[in-house]
Amino acid sequence: MTSGRSGIRHLELGSRDLERSRAFYRGLLGFDEVEVGAAGHERRPTAWFAAGPALVKVVELGDDRDPGTWADEDLQGGLRHAGFKIGDIDAQMRRLEAAGVEVLSPPRDVLGDVRIAFFLDPDGARLELVQGNLRYEHVESPALVQAEADLSLAPGDGARFDHVGLTVADLGATLDLWCGRFGYEVIGDIRHHDDERGFLMTYLAAGGSVLEVFSFDVPTQAPPVIGPEQLGLRGIGVGAHDAAGRATGPLTVRDGVVVEVVGKDG
Questions:
Q1: Does residue 266 lie within any of the structural domains?
Q2: What residues in the chain have per-residue pLDDT under 70?
Q3: What is the CATH number of the domain that holds 115?
Q4: How far apart are CA 1 and CA 114, in angstroms?
Q5: pTM surpassing 0.85?
């Protein structure tokens, strides 16, 4: 769970109005806007925000864009949501509601002994707040569980990037990619035993963040087509290196940073 390992470097989102997104991510979520080395190469107005172990990249696309074929359905493949840890979820959600943010589900205690809430950013990206550390049904790495416990947030602590949720059609092939190619490690898993779809959540340590993998015993749906004009969740930037720090392939890499990787599940 250290930032020096391969992991999620940034979350990318599409925005209609960059100033409105700044008011949301900087003003409401409290992330500092930062400059990065890639800023001069962006073709569109772009803002970067420091969110703990990863950056949030927001790209302005204009008023005439939409979320495309992304659906609020966990059986749809690809990115489902982005999650942020918070010290006091109820206080933060009250602040978001007072600002007119669209809340999908208010804070509630859920399987895994955490408290969660879901809401939308100004352009429809599905975001989650999480308070507490997960209690896994099966633990694969006690050391990684302890590393999560060591990062526990106090009530006064602000939000920090924690994970992205990803629905996949083939869990084995997904683990071959992320663990075999990228070097991520399985922390543990949680099964929803009362879900007739056979819903399993598998958690991978991705540097200082987590990849939350959704898999099911029933067929999943095709992932949305993510194009250059896509609003909302657009992708993640990842780093991939071997033990000696060399960039691994076959990937498109510049200065050790992955420029673009398209996975089997979109």
A1: no
A2: 1-6, 37-42, 240-266
A3: 3.10.180.10
A4: 19
A5: yes
